[in-house]
Amino acid sequence: MRSVIVLAGVFVALAVCGPLVAPHDPTAINIAQRLSPPGPDWILGTDALGRDILSRLLHGARWSLGLAFLISVIGLCMGTLMGLLAAQGGKLADWIVMRTTDTFLAFPDLVAAVVIAGVLGAGTGSLIFALTVTGWMRYARVVRGIGLSLQTRGYVVQAKLAGLSPLAIARWHYLPALMPSLTVVWTGMFARAILGISALGFLGFGVQPPMPEWGTMLLDARIHMRSTPLQMIWPGLAVVICVLAINLAGDALRDRLAGQEEQA
């Protein structure tokens, strides 16, 4: 577990500090050095415009992981609020929230995100909106399920009899019980957000040039995939390793929490 957490932490550190240690300007065009192989001056080589791939990967980590963090946090807040509304708002609120989540979950996340981003137009704002709208439902279903199970607990019943407001009950009784499960769900959705950002970027709906992002780097490199495959391999590896590390960290966290529950 420690090695997985360390690996995930490395990617987080790259997102925070990577641009500070990048050897070159990620947007500087140098046609004379275009498609250069890895070497002392260009550790991972250059792309079709002569831009340093390593620098673009380090700067791209801030976009890919930073946007994924923002999207997953917004989805967490939205899903938690909707799940609590379904659990505490009565049958009508429960029906509306659950039918809404069922409608969204009937479509694959990426397909729905592509449709939304296509309607709104390419750009970072459209990317955030599309992936947030298609990602909050899983949080809501988890919160709603746990919330319904807590309604019959003695301390929740006593809080209602004491006249506490639904907001106070959610704050003091629901949220502490929800945090372990939401943390595990959040790690998975964080990884899914990275994949979604990269996928939309590859399709041209994400972060727009010249700003580097792993998905847009794959898009720029596809033309030269046969002649210089390393252009696609480096950002592809970054996405795969980062998502794998976050998913494994989430699985390890889930196992740890399950073990603590069994001991309790």
Keywords, separated by commas or semicolons:
73% helix; 264 residues; mainly alpha; MetI-like fold; elongated
Share of helical residues = over 70%
Q: According to CATH, what is the topology?
A: MetI-like fold
State the secondary-structure class.
mainly alpha
Low-confidence stretches: none
Mean pLDDT over the residues: 85
Overall 3D geometry? elongated
The biggest beta sheet, please? none
Gyration radius, rounded:
22 Å
The top-level CATH class is: Mainly Alpha
Number of helices: 10
Count of spatially separate domains: 1
Secondary-structure arrangement, i.e. CATH architecture = Orthogonal Bundle
Which superfamily, in CATH terms, is the homologous superfamily?
MetI-like
Number of DSSP strands? 0
Describe this structure in words.
By secondary structure, this protein is mainly α. It has one domain (51-263): Orthogonal Bundle (MetI-like fold). It is 73% helix and 0% strand. It has 10 helices and no strands. It has helices at 2-21, 53-88, 91-105, 109-120, 124-133, 137-150, 154-161, 166-202, 214-221, 230-263. The longest helix is centred in the last third of the chain and has 37 residues, at 166-202. The two termini are 21 Å apart. The relative contact order is 0.14. The mean pLDDT is 85.
